[in-house]
Amino acid sequence: MLKFKIVDGKREVKARLVVRGFKDAEADSLTTFAGTATRWGQRMICSIAAQYQWRLWSADISMAFLRGLTFEEIAKTSGEPIRSIQFDLPNGANALLQTFDGFSDFNALAETLNMDKPGFGTKDAPWAWGIKLKTTLGDFHFVPTKADPRFYTLHSTSLDDKQLKALAIVKPKQGDKGILLAVVSTHVDDLKGACSDALRQLFFAYLEGQYGKLSISIGSFTCVGIRHKQLEDFSVRLDQDEYAKQMRAIDVTEVEHEADDFLVPTFMVMLFMSLLGGIAWMVLTRIDICVFVNRLQRHAKTPRLVDVRDCNKLLRWVQRQSSVTLYRRMEPPIGIMVLSDAAYRADETDCLALRAAVAGLCEIRDGVPGGCFHVLDWYSRKQTRVNRSTFGAELNALLESVDLGLVLACFLGEIFDGLSDSRTIAANIERGEMPVEVHIGID
Fold first, then answer.
1. Percentage of the chain surpassing pLDDT 90?
2. Alpha helix stretches (DSSP H) within 265-304
3. What residues pair up with 438 in beta bridges, in sequence order?
4. Which site among 133, 175, 392, 396 is 20 to 30 Å from 229 CA-CA?
5. 252 near 308, Cβ under 8 Å?
6. Cβ of 341: how many Cβ atoms within 10 Å?
7. Which pLDDT band holds residue 271 (cuts at 50, 70, 90)?
8. Per-residue pLDDT averaged across 70-82, rounded?
9. How many CA atoms lie within 13 A of 40 on its CB side?
10. C-alpha span between 3 and 5 (Å, rounded)
11. 8 A C-beta contact, residue 296 and residue 307
C-alpha cells in the first residue's frame, strides 16, 4: 500500500506491506481503550506556553504502533495469557522475506509467521503503544494528572540530582511543592508540550534514545488538525483556516426542485454526514458554529434537503469568516470563569432543552473577573436531565457549568501545585478550598 503526505512542501511516499484477510480470534475480548488528551488539556498547553514564556513544540514518533509493548510484556503487565497471532504474507512477498537474515529458508507452504507485538491492523495496538509511551514519560519523571490522564506535568521535586544539575536548578527542600518545569499532552503518537529550551533539548535527546529520530516542530506547526503559531512575545494563536479550505460543498442540483422537507437520497446522506463531520471538527477552534453544528447533528442520519443546504451555508461561513483563538500572557491573580446559558422550547409531542457554556482562565481585578481571558472549553449540546420549563433548563445548565469549573480548578491545582491524590482533591472540594477562584456567570 502506498501512502503520501506533504512534508515541508515536499511529497513523501511511504510503502507499506499490508496483510489482508487474516482474522484475530481474540479481537472482541481485548482491552483496547487508548485515550487522548482532552480538548481543554490541549488548550492548557498553549495557555501555559504563553504564561510561562516557553516555546511551544510538537513531536511525532514514527511507526509508533510497532514500538509498543510485545505480547509477552503485555501478558506480564496484565496477568493474561500471551496472545498468539499468525499470518501469511501476500502472494509474491515470500521472496522479499527470504532476503532478511534468518528467513532465507522460509517455506510458505509449511510455515507461517508469528507476531511479536500488536501492529497496524490489530485492535490492541493503540492501547499497547499508550502503555509504552506512559512508561517512557514516567521514566523521565513526568506525572499524569487525575483530571486528564493524557496530560503530563514535570515539577522540580520529581527530577533526580543529575537532571537538576543539567538544568541548573536548585534542589527543592523537603516538603516544598517545587516549580512547574514542563507540560506535555499526548494524542496517540503526537506529543505537544511547552518547557524551557534546555529542558526541551534534554527531553528530545531522551525520546530519540528510546524511539529513534523524531519529527520535531517548534513554534509553528499543525497538530490534530489545528494550526499553531507562536508569536515573538510567546503568545499563541490557533486556527483551522487551511483545514476549512479543503472541504467542498455538496452538489444539490439533482434535488433542488424538491421541497425543503424532502429526504435526500442515500448517496447524499453519506456526503452530508462526511461534510458535517468535517465541520464539527472545526468546533475545536470555532465557538461561533457550535449551536449550528448541534442543530444539524440532530438530522445526521435522515437529513432533509433544507439540512443539506444549511450545511453548505455553514461551510461557506467558516471558509469566508476566519477565526483565531489567541493566548497571551495574563497578569495575576488568575481565576476560572464559566459562562452558562440554556434554551428551552415546548412542543406538543416533546420538549427541546439545550445547554451551553464557555470556560477558561481569566484575570481577577478587584475581586471580579476582567481583562485577558484564555478559553479552555466550550460546548453546545442537549440537556442531560429532563426539563419542563425555561427555569429548569437554566438551572440544570448552571449546575453542569459548576461541575466543569470544579474540574478545571482541580486540574489547575495539579498543574501548578503538583499532583494530589483523589481523596485530597475531593476533601478540598467539600471544604471549598479550591486552588483558584471559580466564578460562574449565567445569561
1. 56
2. 266-281, 290-297
3. 336
4. 133
5. yes
6. 19
7. very high
8. 84
9. 23
10. 7
11. yes
Q: How far apart are CA 10 and CA 243, in angstroms?
A: 18
Between residues 159 and 375, the one the model is more confident about? 375
Cite the beta strand spans of 245-350 per DSSP E.
325-327, 334-346
How far apart CA 417 and CA 335 sit, in angstroms, is 15
Q: Please state, in angstroms and as integers, the Cα–Cα distance from residue 388 to each residue in 295, 305, 399, following that order.
A: 20, 31, 16
Q: 2: which residues sit within 8 A by CB, 6+ positions away? A: 13, 14, 15, 16
Contact 354, 383 (CB under 8 A): yes
For residue 419, what pLDDT is reported?
Answer: 64
Q: CA–CA separation, 252 vs 23, rounded Å?
A: 41
**Rounded Cα gap, residues 238 and 308, in angstroms:** 28
What mean pLDDT, rounded, does the chain reach? 88
Is residue 338 within 8 Å of residue 397, measured between CB atoms? no
Calculate mean pLDDT across residues 201-212: 93
Grid coordinates belonging to 369: 473577573
Beta bridge partners of 151: 185
Residue 143's DSSP bridge partners are: 153
Q: Quick one: DSSP state of residue 29?
A: G
Phi, psi of 343 (to 5 degrees): -140, 145
Tell me the C-alpha distance between 12 and 191, whole Å.
21
Please give the sequence-ordered ranges of beta strands (E in DSSP) within 280-328, or none if there are none: 325-327
CA distance 45 to 42: 6
Residue owning grid cell 523521565 = 140
Amino acid at 296: L
Residue 31: CB partners within 8 Å, gap ≥ 6?
78, 124, 127
